[in-house]
Amino acid sequence: MAQILYVTNILIEDGALAQLAAECTRAGITRPLIVTDAGVKAAGLLDRALAALPGWPVAVFDQTPGNPNEAAVRAAVLACKAGACDGLIALGGGSSIDCAKGVAIAATHEGPLKTYATIEGGSPKITPAVLPLIAVPTTAGTGSEVARGAIVIVDDGRKLGFHSWHLVPKTAILDPSLTLGLPPLLTAATGMDAIAHCMETFMAPAFNPPADGIALDGLQRGWSHIERATNDGQDREARLNMMSASMQGAMAFQKGLGCVHSLSHSLGGVNPRLHHGTLNALFLPAVIAFNAGAESVQKERRLQRMAHAMGLQDDGDAAASAQRLGEAIRSMNARLGLPAGLAALGVTEDLFDRVIQGALADHCHKTNPRLASAEDYRVMLRASM
């Protein structure tokens, strides 16, 4: 059964942060916990959020790590309970938003977090009792502000997905002015994350025409504005379009993702210091080449349609389009200053077995248009070095 569901109230414009108090009231939140990180606080964005809540009793957890983990979730739950909080405001990138979703579960459900992981059969165990959440992204990449999922490293070291419609934020406040100070490399890496979402969900085989349309438009916006946003952090039009591309990628990926994310999730669990968006950018060419052999990709001319959205020549067969797309992505990565391959990040072939094991178990593995074997993943890893 194909399910198509879009439920988040999305406010997207410069100055949208001014609506934070009104949106808290609309969501029934009277004592919020702001979940953020030290970088966002140092940039002055926490102060801006607090100024939008004058006179409100607000608790703050500002220690979200770069890859959220169960220990951080537990610490934030303690802050939530100490402040008698009845709702959450996630302020930051995907890490803060995903950490807040972990808190929404852990503060209201018993047992270790892995109990509620998708691959553990935990999705049906996540109930409407979760704390209501408002998401205020300060990057343009993950799209977690409109997504039903979160990625958290649990206590046993696995990087697991948690998915439930109950986790979808009540409101997403997309204020491009919050991203103006984002450093170029982080702008590039998060932007390629958004582009990867749009591309991979467009290749996914499930029937969801609205998701396809949203993803293709998001790809066009992201591809045509990412260099501008990276090269000129004050380009408000580029920042707005990158925020939209990020949001659109996540609205669309309810359709499913694929091997790019299976590999990134697994490698990110093996080495949590690696940036998820950067990994997605590096894996895209190899996965697109692998997907060129998928029947659904060939029948519906998926690769040619993506090439057209990116302003590339789109004639020829799927294999030719896969090569053209791969070359364009590698060239874009280079222009953005991203690494040329996994080796530049310190990844070595002795990690491959662990990464492949995790990729085969990942929740995105089965929604790729072509089912990958262990050897297929090994080929993709080598091609991405």
TrEMBL record:
<dbReference type="Pfam" id="PF00465">
    <property type="entry name" value="Fe-ADH"/>
</dbReference>
<dbReference type="InterPro" id="IPR056798">
    <property type="entry name" value="ADH_Fe_C"/>
</dbReference>
<feature type="domain" description="Fe-containing alcohol dehydrogenase-like C-terminal">
    <location>
        <begin position="187"/>
        <end position="384"/>
    </location>
</feature>
<dbReference type="Pfam" id="PF25137">
    <property type="entry name" value="ADH_Fe_C"/>
</dbReference>
<dbReference type="GO" id="GO:0050093">
    <property type="term" value="F:methanol dehydrogenase (NAD+) activity"/>
</dbReference>
<dbReference type="InterPro" id="IPR039697">
    <property type="entry name" value="Alcohol_dehydrogenase_Fe"/>
</dbReference>
<dbReference type="InterPro" id="IPR001670">
    <property type="entry name" value="ADH_Fe/GldA"/>
</dbReference>
<comment type="similarity">
    <text>Belongs to the iron-containing alcohol dehydrogenase family.</text>
</comment>
<keyword id="KW-0520">NAD</keyword>
<dbReference type="InterPro" id="IPR018211">
    <property type="entry name" value="ADH_Fe_CS"/>
</dbReference>
<dbReference type="GO" id="GO:0046872">
    <property type="term" value="F:metal ion binding"/>
</dbReference>
<keyword id="KW-0560">Oxidoreductase</keyword>
<feature type="domain" description="Alcohol dehydrogenase iron-type/glycerol dehydrogenase GldA">
    <location>
        <begin position="8"/>
        <end position="176"/>
    </location>
</feature>
<protein>
    <submittedName>
        <fullName>NAD-dependent methanol dehydrogenase</fullName>
        <ecNumber>1.1.1.244</ecNumber>
    </submittedName>
</protein>
